[in-house]
Amino acid sequence: MGKIISVINQKGGVGKTTTAVNLAACLGVMEKKVLLVDMDPQGNATSMSSIKAEKFNTIYDLMADPEIDAVYSTELPFMKIIPCNEELTGAEIELLQMDDREFILKQTLEDLKDKFDYIIIDSPPSLNILTVNNMVASDGVIIPIQCEYFALEGLSRIMATIANIKNINPELEIYGILLTMYDKRVKLTYEVEKDVREHFDKLVFKTFIPRNVKLSESPSFGTPIVLYDISSIGAKKYLELAEEFIKRMKRSRK
Fold first, then answer.
1. I need a labelling partner for 173 at 20 to 30 A (CA). Which of 44, 133, 221, 249 fits?
2. Across 161-185, average pLDDT
3. For residue 124, what is the DSSP state?
4. What radius of gyration do the chain's Cα atoms show?
5. CATH number for the domain harbouring residue 174
6. Among the listed ranges 16-25, 183-192, 199-208, which one has the minimum average pLDDT value?
7. Number of domain units in the chain
8. Are 28 and 49 in contact (CB under 8 A)?
9. Confidence of residue 52 (pLDDT cuts 50, 70, 90)
10. CA-CA distance, 14 to 40, in Å (whole number)?
11. What is the 3-state secondary structure (H, E, C) of 156-211?
């Protein structure tokens, strides 16, 4: 049975969607069967994933009717996607009116879990009912944080939220904290890294994601970095992250 991982951060612009898409793509390159689930109403993960369909059902449709087909191929043979669009915004209001509203996504993904090695969920940049659904459905989370002021403050809020979610999903783990937009030319980067590693130690991935022009360009071409420019430092770092992630998952299963 596969593992479900949510990529979460209540702050936008920290590389959350970039990480969800590119980690999924790199795992696919490594011939792991991966399903990317776009749970951010902005739909950026969908537009970045080279989806092979012009018209498609979405995660919103699948949550309403589990019998429909909403899993689509991408240009990477081992990577599939359940897309979304702005209709998912309406789900926030609808979910609040439902019984067992925190468990809707978990129930939706139940039949898919044993078909993939990993299901990676891109979350909205807020701690709303959609993000709660993501964490309740997940075995663990990955938390990307930008190397900037207040990084630790934001992490503290996320940790408090995870602690609350564990009352509903006691098995929820933190699979890793990922430093993003890492810039060796900026002293603050090293200060943030030092603080985060001191406070969270082994939870922090050894791999960091640097600022990289190719990585910034690839979303505008609607493709993961490994398809846009596999020789770029951004692609190399996400491939490195995928390798480290797989090693962590193997250790967690022992």
1. 44
2. 95
3. P
4. 17
5. 3.40.50.300
6. 183-192
7. 1
8. no
9. confident
10. 14
11. HHHHHHHHHHCCCCCCCEEEEEEEEEECCCCHHHHHHHHHHHHHHHHHEEEEEEEC
**The token pair that represents 148 in the structure block:** 């900037």
pLDDT at 69 over 80: yes
Supply the pLDDT for residue 174.
Answer: 96
CA 111 to chain centre: 20
The per-residue pLDDT for 34 is 98
Torsion angle of alpha carbons 233, 46, 36, 153, nearest 10°?
A: 70
Look at residue 72 and tell me if it is in a domain: yes
Position 64 pLDDT exceeds 80: yes
Q: Is residue 31 part of a domain?
A: yes
Lowest pLDDT segment from 65-74, 163-172, 245-254: 245-254
Residue 31: phi and psi, rounded to 5, are: 65, 30
Answer yes or no: are the C-beta atoms of 142 and 246 closer than 8 Å: no
Tell me the residue type at 134.
Answer: N
Range of the domain at 226: 3-247
Q: What pLDDT, on a 0 to 100 scale, did the predictor assign at position 151? A: 79
Give the CA distances from residue 83 to residues 24, 124, 144, in Å, rounded to whole numbers and listed in that order: 14, 14, 21
Looking at the chain, the number of H-run helices and the number of E-run strands are: 11, 8
Residue 65 maps to a domain = yes
Domain presence at residue 252: no
pLDDT at 81: 97
Burial class (CB in 10 A: 0-12, 13-18, 19+), 143: buried
Mean pLDDT, range 200-225, rounded to an integer: 95
**Contacts for 139 with CB less than 8 Å, ≥ 6 apart:** 3, 4, 5, 171, 172, 173
Q: Taking the CA atoms of 197, 242, 166 and 145 in sequence, report the sign of the dihedral they define.
A: positive
